[in-house]
Design goal:
globular, 18% strand, 9 strands, 251 residues, binds zinc ion, single chain
């Protein structure tokens, strides 16, 4: 039987920007249609509080749903309480989006959250953009994610979009992360399989993890971005399946 795919980057709900959505009732069909086993699920930019609650519920109910909680600087105290209670209980970590937050992930205001994540050895998935070519002046620069990864070494930091939506930014991010073993890269949003090949060369196949960014991106588009890479079968099975499982394992 064909190996099922594990997807580290799936959004629940609808966006204020694109005309695509994934509702609770669509999840079953989404998994079946694309031969997916486990998903890491978190809200899109709309109805964040409502969807955060739904994600927690779904993660408790379904073994294959691993929840990421979208944190917001306007409610750090409440979020810390929720995370203290829910991490390890279906919820596996948090999602951070510097563009919507208008703040960088390494900012002091998020430290109470990072401390909980570090204590619980949880996941921090960070949106990384291409704005200003990955310069620290951008709130969505991979640089800030790596700062957090260095400071909180028990947090499994996933740099979404392989560190930024541009090959030159991806290259910089991979090079900067070489000696930061708790920094991982999700393959969502890549426009060429070359970035996956580059990733393997720079940090090895164990730190690259498949993400579709569905429904923001086309699932198949993202899947073939990995499938078309000139890499070994073994590396592909790590990226598309096994690395996810290692990331969520309790050890
Ligand atoms: Zn996304």
């Amino acid at each position: 039987m064909k190996l099922k795919v594990n997807d580290v980057h799936v959004h629940l709900g609808s966006s204020s920007i694109i005309n695509q959505k994934l509702l609770v009732k669509d999840i079953k069909n989404f998994r079946k249609k694309y031969n997916i086993d486990n998903i890491m699920l978190f809200t899109l930019d709309r109805d964040i509080d409502k969807n955060n609650k739904k994600v927690i519920e779904l993660a408790k109910k379904y073994e294959y749903v691993h929840g990421l909680y979208w944190i917001q600087k306007t409610r750090i105290k409440e979020d810390v309480k929720i995370l203290e209670q829910e991490l390890g209980n279906g919820l596996v970590g948090v999602k951070f989006h510097g563009v919507f937050e208008k703040e960088k992930v390494s900012a002091k205001i998020y430290e109470p959250i990072m401390k909980v994540l570090d204590k619980k050895k949880a996941i921090l998935l960070i949106h990384c953009g291409r704005f200003k070519d990955g310069s620290p002046l951008s709130n969505s620069s991979f640089v800030h994610g790596l700062t957090v990864a260095k400071k909180f070494q028990n947090i499994k930091v996933i740099l979404a979009h392989m560190g930024g939506n541009d090959t030159s930014v991806v290259r910089k991010a991979l090079e900067s992360a070489k000696n930061i073993p708790n920094a991982y890269f999700d393959t969502s949003g890549i426009s060429t399989p070359f970035r996956v090949e580059l990733g393997i060369k720079k940090v090895g196949p164990k730190r690259i993890i498949f993400g579709s960014d569905f429904p923001w991106c086309s699932f198949r588009g993202m899947f073939y971005g990995v499938e078309d890479a000139l890499i070994s079968k073994h590396a592909k099975s790590l990226i598309l399946n096994k690395n996810f499982l290692r990331l969520i394992s309790k050890n």
